[in-house]
Structures are given as C-alpha cells and as structure tokens.
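Both lines are quoted verbatim for reference:

——
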Amino acid sequence: MDLKFLVVDDSVTMRRIVSNSLKNLGYEDFLEAGDGKEALSILAGDKSINFVITDWNMPVMSGLELIKAIRSDAALAKLPVLMVTTRGVKEDIIEALNAKVNNYIVKPFTPQVLKEKIEQCLVSV
C-alpha cells in the first residue's frame, strides 16, 4: 500500500526530523502542516492522504483537537493517526487513546520506533 503522510508539528525542525525518518524508511510522499487547523484544511483538499503523524502541543489547534476533528468527520474517521509528542505521562497517553489515536510515540524517538508504530497502526486499521 502506498502511503501519503501528513506531518503536523509547529516546529519546522521536528517536521524535518519526521520527514527525514519517513524518507529513510522508504516513504517519499508526504505533506506538512504547522498546526491542526492547517492540517484539517489540507485533509479537506487532498483525499489521497492516508496517514497522519501529529504533535500534541501546537498553537491554533492542538494535536488532540485535530484527532477529535478527524474522528468526528465520516470521510476521515478511519484515517490512521500517530501522535509524536513530548507528553509521556500516563494521563496524557490515556487522553490521546480516548480520542482514538492509533498509536503514540514519546519524543525523542528513533526511525526504527517510528517504523514499528506506523506498521502497528496499519495492522489495526
């Protein structure tokens, strides 16, 4: 399955790290957004995106709000969403899982961890 990713993070550096990790894993097709609102706008316009990787803490619209918006939209509800964040406490992870995130990575991470989490998300779809 060809995957087209949307990488959502307010940090340009973090988007570059995720994008470079994706390239190293053999994924060439991705777009980037600086916050959840921009991400929703891209998702509305590009129906070929089939995987979202998002940060949690962002201005305008957080990653958690983005996940809730995706899950409440019938056209996007089944989209795999992987959260990559510095928020590693159990309560935050539970909150993200309750919002129906498919998987969760605490920064910093290795490309190998990213690969494993992407694969786990695809199995659960």
Notes: The mean pLDDT is 94. Helices lie at 12-24, 36-45, 63-71, 90-98, 111-124.
